[in-house]
Amino acid sequence: MAERVIFGVMGKSPRIRVIFKPKRIAEGDWQIEAHCPGAEIRYIKGLTSKTDFDEWMQGSRRIDWLRSQGYAK
After folding, report:
1. Per the domain annotation, does 31 fall within a domain?
2. Is pLDDT of 22 > 80?
3. What are the tens digits of pLDDT across the range 30-63?
4. CA-based diameter of the chain, in Å?
5. Nearest to 35, CA basis, from 3, 73, 61
6. Which string of DSSP letters, residue by residue, matches the chain?
7. Angle 23-54-61 (CA atoms, 0-180°, nearest 5)?
8. What is the rounded CA–CA span in Å between residue 65 and residue 36?
């Protein structure tokens, strides 16, 4: 699977790079691995397909997640 790279900004600190990787667990069960610098891999669960992952990446859920982790305003 191709990696997806997103940059989040937190205040006036340097850019923080978060790499999102889709991972198929089983039929109809996908998750996203979020690789954050200096932190353990975080798992975003509850996705049902590669299309669901693509929609997550393109929609507001990605930004909402980055905000909830402190990587975006």
Report:
1. yes
2. yes
3. 999 999 888 899 999 999 999 999 999 999 999 9
4. 42
5. 3
6. ---EEEEE--TTSPPEEEEEEEEEEETTEEEEEEE-TTS--EEEEEE-SHHHHHHHHHSHHHHHHHHHTTS--
7. 95
8. 13
Where do we find the tokens 């991972």? 23
Q: Tally the domains of the chain.
A: 1
Residue 34 belongs to some domain of the structure:
yes
Residue 73 lies in a domain: no
pTM for this structure?
0.77
Using an 8 Å Cβ cutoff, are 29 and 48 in contact?
yes
- Residue 26, domain member (yes or no): yes
**Domain span holding position 35:** 4-68
d(CA 71, CA 73): 7
